[in-house]
Design brief:
heterodimer; A: 115 residues; mainly beta; six-stranded mixed sheet; four-stranded antiparallel sheet; 50% strand; B: 115 residues; seven-stranded mixed sheet
Chain lengths: 115, 115
């Protein structure tokens, strides 16, 4: 059984960056393809990007290209998502989720962007 | 026009069946896509329910009851999540998703009320 445990809530000022972590247990990170999905308060789900095992590359949603970086530390089985140039509209819960099915989800990390 | 359109809300009675639709934008043929379905309850991450492309290409999520099933309505260009024998615990938001042009796209979600 895969378990994903994310880092805690963050409060950031506009223009800053945030880095959210997602630690995997039950499997190794190399056995999974990690994706990131966010959800603004009261809104729906929005895919940000993730690892495409067919190409061996990380793909980003067009909306976030240039502002988001997804990385992995296989020595600790931890995935990271860093979002820069934060604005108020980036206030959301950020989730990590596995593989094309999004079978397993982290508990979510609330990122609040406020001056 | 959104890639995936879901009705914002749906109400049904306990014990009845509910049919949740996910309509693909004109020009995107439902027959060529796997449709993924997720359930989300307040304060919790989404849970993967199932995916459906055809009767020979479908998958039930781990531990998901068989009263949740998928199908398609080709004439409406829509994926369908059927929930039979509705229970109060089925009250939640439901999202559909497809992989389109190497990107994940979610529908806006349907809030299902069981009353």
């Amino acid at each position: 059984q895969v378990q994903l445990v994310q880092s805690g809530a963050e409060v950031k000022k506009p223009g800053a960056s945030v880095k959210v972590s997602c630690k995997v247990s039950g499997y190794t990170l190399t056995e999974l393809s990690m994706h990131w999905v966010r959800q603004a308060p009261g809104k729906g789900l929005e895919w940000m990007g993730g690892f495409d095992p067919e190409d061996g590359e990380t793909i980003y949603a067009q909306k976030f290209q240039g502002r988001v970086t997804m990385t992995e530390d296989t020595s600790t089985d931890t995935a990271y998502m860093e979002l820069s140039s934060l604005r108020s509209e980036d206030t959301a819960v950020y989730y990590c989720a596995t593989d094309y099915n999004f079978d397993y989800w982290g508990q979510g990390t609330l990122v609040t962007v406020s001056s | 026009q959104a890639v995936l359109t879901q009705p914002s809300s749906l109400s049904a009675s306990p014990g009845a069946s509910a049919s949740l639709t996910c309509t693909l934008r004109s020009g995107i043929n439902v027959g060529t896509y796997r449709i993924y379905w997720y359930q989300q309850k307040p304060g919790s991450p989404p849970q993967y329910l199932l995916r459906y492309k055809s009767d020979s290409d479908k998958q039930q999520g781990s531990g998901v009851p068989s009263r949740f099933s998928g199908s398609k309505d080709a004439s409406a260009n829509a994926g369908i999540l059927l929930i039979s024998g509705l229970q109060s615990e089925d009250e939640a938001d439901y999202y559909c998703m497809i992989w389109h042009s190497s990107a994940s796209v979610f529908g806006g979600g349907t809030k299902l009320t069981v009353l």
